[in-house]
Amino acid sequence: MLSPLRLLCWIAVAVLAAGMGTGACGAERSEQALEDLGRAVFHDVNLSASRSQSCATCHDPAHGFSDARDNGVGAALSRGADGKSLGDRNAPTTAYAALIPPLTRDAGGQYQGGLFHDGRARDTAEQAGQPMLNPLEMQMPSAAAVVARVRENPAYVAALTAHFGAGLFADDEAAFKAIREAIAVFERSPVMLAFDSRYDRYLRGEVKLTADEDQGRVLFFSSLTNCTSCHLLETTHLASRETFSSYRYFNIGLPANHAARAVNGRAGTVDRGLAANPTVNDERQVGKFRVPTLRNVAVTAPYMHNGVFRDLHTAIFFYNQHLVKNADNAINPETGQAWGAPEVPATVEHDKLALGQPLDDERIALIVAFLNTLTDKRFEPLLKK
Ligand code: HEC
Ligand code: HEC
Question: What confidence tens digit (pLDDT) does each residue in 105-116 have?
């Protein structure tokens, strides 16, 4: 929320002429103005070709910053600014995305980090430009066209030039970069990095977990399950700013989302995952996707890079088939049919997925109870009762 002082300050920035440097409201002023600008831009439909779609359309602050619209595909995929175009991947939450490290490759050839399911953006500032120019998303023809839309708004121009200098708009690329930086500042703000879930409050000693939540927590962190080998960044499970992703890439053997592909017309195509990243282009990485954060996971259904599962229970139950092959584990409870073959069979990480024990319904329910505690305070009303 804007404090009255900050609001006043921002209005002052908006009203006063460009190039005033750091003055009126002190050093914090300019950074705060940039965050407020980033928030405004994130919600501004004028940055899409049809003036009908903003970042917040697909990263809805009322739904854990994910796309809750049905889109004719059970919310698995997002429609673009023309109301028709459909992508091929599920929109991840933007909460905590600012903490994803840039893509790196270690000596062993293992990749880690990068934004998007295939790590193709280095950081949030780089990422923010891509949806605006994506022909399936906000559909703006060029960076210059985005800058022209921003220039329509005098408050934006004032805030940007106050921070980046009076000459900013002489160079479209520089102005486009400044706009993306403002979005990135907003994505680093406490709105997106709240760390105020029940789990965080539990770590701070402010609340007690229920018996179910606590048993789920113990299971999640125990060697009975193998979750933490992929869904943990810090080595200690008490790390206060844990984002529940190693940010590494794995193929967990997911089937294609055939129902969604029947609607977007991509039946029979293969999402190459990390190998689709132009800087990677390595056949061994086909079908691997970056481990997603589990923060707010309970309120950002459907699940996986292609939104193939509607329910958190299913997403966890899916792992069982790698541990024990039997008739029960072979059926997707959402469809009543077999899970379906992995979209990319060749790179499925069978050995990594074969650790731990299969989970019965009761234990899955406990883990779900734990995952519910990773919901930021503002999203708690969205939790299923
Ligand atoms: C039409 C829907 C749509 C719009 C509009 C949209 N996004 Fe996204 N966003 C997605 C999808 C889908 C992905 C995943 C795409 C992929 O991995 O290839 C994504 C990925 C992201 C990610 C990466 C998260 C992660 O975990 O890697 C961030 C951050 C993000 N979007 C921010 C934004 C911002 C900022 C805007 C506005 C400038 C925006 N998005 C506009 C659908 C959308
Ligand atoms: C070998 C690494 C690995 C292990 C072990 C693992 N996961 Fe995952 N998990 C992933 C990857 C990778 C994805 C994303 C897959 C994709 O979209 O293609 C994922 C996705 C998920 C999702 C969906 C999140 C979303 O936003 O779509 C949930 C929930 C989840 N995992 C929970 C768990 C739990 C609980 C465990 C332990 C029982 C576990 N995972 C074990 C790697 C792993």
Answer: 999 999 999 999
